[in-house]
Amino acid sequence: IRRHVGLTQELATTVSADERFDVVAPHPLNLLCLALRPDDRGLDEANRRTDALIDAANTTGQTLLNRRVLDGRVVLRFSIGATRTQRADVERSWALVSRLAARIGE
User: Fold this and answer.
1) The pLDDT of residue 30
2) pLDDT tens figures, 53-100
3) Residue-averaged pLDDT of the chain
4) Cα–Cα distance measured from residue 28 to residue 22, given in angstroms and rounded to the nearest whole number
5) What element of type H or E holds 15?
6) How far apart are the C-alpha atoms of 90 and 22, rounded to whole Å?
7) Model confidence, pTM
8) What would you measure as the largest C-alpha separation in the chain, in angstroms?
9) N or C of the chain: less Cβ packing under 10 Å?
10) Predicted confidence band at 106 (pLDDT cuts at 50, 70, 90)?
């Protein structure tokens, strides 16, 4: 459990440094909720893009992300908890999300 919490905190630091994303909820354990940051097109468009990102990531079969709505905002739930999950797995999943976000933002 400690390892998963540590990986979640590391991922939160990485996500927070990416200007395209917001960490949208506290993350004291192994669940990180993030969303694409609204721009001048507004929250509805950011929600649409976050939904598209979740669908695109899940369609690859390389990761499984969950969707929730928090205070009217669509969020991507990144849960780190499988017994065999390693740092490299988290890094690969984040790289995928990051690449797909770049495509969705175009």
Assistant:
1) 95
2) 999 999 999 999 999 999 999 999 999 999 899 999 999 999 999 999
3) 95
4) 16
5) helix 2-16
6) 18
7) 0.92
8) 41
9) C
10) low
Contact 79, 45 (CB under 8 A): no
End-to-end CA distance of the chain: give it in Å, rounded. 38
Residue pair 24/70 in contact by the 8 Å Cβ criterion? yes
For residues 33 and 15, what is the distance between their CA atoms, to the nearest angstrom?
10
